[in-house]
Design brief:
Length: about 600
């Protein structure tokens, strides 16, 4: 049974509502997001690009720009080395556009997921040296590449690291942590010690964006910067959503403004992908980036080469862009099928063994495509509510990805088992690793022996913003909720709740008969439409236990029933056939 909690944070909701011309319910929701100061409320509701933080606040920014200006003036060859996920691809695109605009002789290399693995490695460094590269600029990687930066320096190259991942550390006997930074000419990472950046939870593409912004401005190219940065902002927004960054503070502004620009994007490749996914002319949201467009960009790095996604963003030919977009969409369809098969295999392994007793699931599936490990881990986590590692066999060793739950800092827990890894990295909610096959079982045992999670940590927690009667809803109120967008990690859709909603009738909709539509009342005599897009089979079982199988059969046969339940919901406006009507979307029930 899930636990339901109603937020009880205090504030002068009516006063906030008056000052900002919003409904008091919105004021309550904003307070629930811990936005309390007047300036922060204004920025939350009406923040624009001018509210973004100055790039010079990032440690080593001036040093990195100084090195790049010198290298550009010398006309030496600069290589950008990104990563094969959407954040790394977008970061590489941003740096390439920015450095080229500044007159740099630059090229881009995206590592191959299987051949190269994650981040800067020895072969990429040696390859760069053999091709006469003078300077390497990393993006979305490099913070853990100390050995590789030392190698590059030994080969006569300069390295600038731009990253956003956690800084590796050693923990001394007295418990003090000592950071292990790469040996680079400049290291830009908001998570490094001594960096005073006000909001360190930005993605790799935003770090790259900040470097381009600072470089252009320091070279006196303000006019050029304004046009280019506007175009690049939508790519930074795209990466922010795809990398599941929290949509708070600056990230919220980046995504909000980026989506507005993306609606009329001048990027030929991005426009082609929007069209290929059937979103042409439709209002774009963070959902579309995270669940429709983003997976197509990520699919190339998983099943093929991420160079194809980079080529799409760089394309200026409409026909070529349409072809590439179609290929990416096709790859993503294949990825979906392979993922579904992988999830089924993982569940069979867990249910058929003692693994299901573990607090942290470590599932070893040698035959699964290694690029799908993270997605499968995420789906398994959703099913079991536990931290999950999915491990596969790479060309030389075991590789894997982890996805965590609140209350379990994955990167820190992995650090306590670092003797088993040949390579690892990540953050609180996700991580990646490589290890020898003989260490898989040792890793599983130690991880679980050290796990401090309790049974309470595994129970689903439903956080309710406002207990609000559906009778309070109006079209104007629902439209005002758009001020709280974009929704996503760290700024979820508001959750409303009401007890004793009475289901009066229902029917099943959809091509796959997986959507429920119900007529409900709150006892006031007014009826409302309620949609449910969740697990209908589980909902039917719940109703049968509460009201009996006979009543559920009557419900779907078109007969009038009366089944009281408590729900959490989100209000919406249904627009169909030129008509508009209020409806609610049920999220949870009990």
């Amino acid at each position: 049974m899930s636990q339901w909690f109603i937020a009880a944070k205090k504030a002068d909701f009516n006063g906030i509502a008056r000052r900002f011309h919003i409904d008091p319910v919105l004021a309550r929701i904003i307070r629930n997001r811990d936005v309390t100061e007047e300036a922060d409320i204004r920025k939350y509701l009406y923040g624009s690009e001018k509210d973004m933080y100055a790039p010079g606040l990032l440690k080593d920014m001036d040093r990195a720009a100084g090195v790049l200006r010198e290298k550009i003036a010398q006309g030496v060859k600069i290589r950008i080395i990104g990563d094969y996920d959407a954040d790394g691809i977008c970061a590489a695109y941003i740096l390439m556009r920015g450095l080229s605009a500044c007159g740099a002789r630059a090229d881009t290399v995206i590592p191959h997921r299987i051949k190269d693995g994650y981040g800067l490695n020895d072969s990429l460094v040696e390859e760069a040296a053999s091709e006469g590269i003078d300077t390497i600029v990393t993006c979305d990687n490099g913070i853990a590449a100390r050995d590789q930066t030392i190698l590059a320096a030994g080969l006569g190259m300069t390295v600038i690291v731009t990253d956003h991942h956690e800084v590796p550390y050693e923990e001394k006997e007295d418990g003090i942590r000592v950071s292990i930074l790469p040996e680079a000419a400049a290291v830009i990472d908001p998570k490094q010690e001594g960096c005073g950046y006000p909001f360190p939870s930005i993605c790799g593409a935003v770090v790259a964006y900040k470097l381009v912004q600072y470089l252009l401005e320091s070279m006196g190219r303000q006019e050029e910067a304004e046009a280019l940065l506007g175009e690049l902002l939508e790519i930074a927004a795209f990466a922010t959503v795809c990398d599941v960054m929290e949509l708070r503070d600056e990230n919220r502004i980046i995504v909000k403004c980026g989506l507005e620009r993306m609606q009329h994007t001048a990027n030929t490749g991005l426009r082609a992908l929007i069209d290929a996914c059937g979103l042409e002319g439709k209002p774009l949201s963070a959902y579309h980036i995270g669940f429709v467009l983003g997976p197509c960009i990520n699919a190339t790095g998983r099943l093929d080469t991420a160079k194809r996604a980079l080529a799409l963003l760089q394309s200026t030919d409409r026909a070529e862009a349409a072809r590439l977009a179609g290929e990416l969409k096709g790859l993503n369809e294949s990825r979906k099928e392979m993922t579904a098969a992988g999830v089924e295999q993982a569940v069979d392994l867990i249910e058929g063994s003692s693994l299901k007793e573990d607090k942290v699931l470590v599932v070893y599936m040698p035959g699964v495509h290694e690029s799908l490990a993270g997605i499968i881990a995420g789906r398994v986590r959703e099913r079991y509510g536990k931290p999950v590692f999915v491990l596969t066999m790479g060309e030389e060793e075991v590789k894997g990805s982890g996805r965590s739950i609140e209350g379990y800092h994955m990167y820190e827990e992995m650090t306590s088992c670092k003797e088993y890894f040949t390579k690892y990295g990540g953050h609180k909610m996700a991580a990646g690793l490589s290890m020898k096959e003989e260490n898989v079982e040792l890793f599983r045992r130690k991880l679980n022996a050290c796990c401090r999670l309790t049974e309470e940590d595994f129970e689903e927690k439903v956080h309710i913003d406002v207990a609000m009667p559906i009778a309070y809803l109006t079209k104007a109120f629902v439209e005002q909720l758009s001020l709280l967008e974009p929704f996503g990690m760290g700024n979820g859709k508001p959750v409303f709740a009401q007890k004793d909603i009475h289901i009066l009738s229902g029917r099943i909709l959809g091509k796959n008969r997986n959507v429920g539509k119900y007529s409900v009342t709150d006892g006031s005599g007014t009826c409302y439409d309620m949609m449910y897009f969740g697990d209908l089979e589980a909902f039917h079982d719940f109703l049968a236990q509460k009201a009996g199988e006979y009543m559920v059969n009557r419900l779907y046969c078109g007969e009038r029933v009366d089944i009281p339940i408590s729900i959490t919901y989100y209000p919406d406006i249904n627009r169909y056939g030129g008509r508009e009507s209020l409806q609610i979307v049920m999220q949870n029930y009990r």
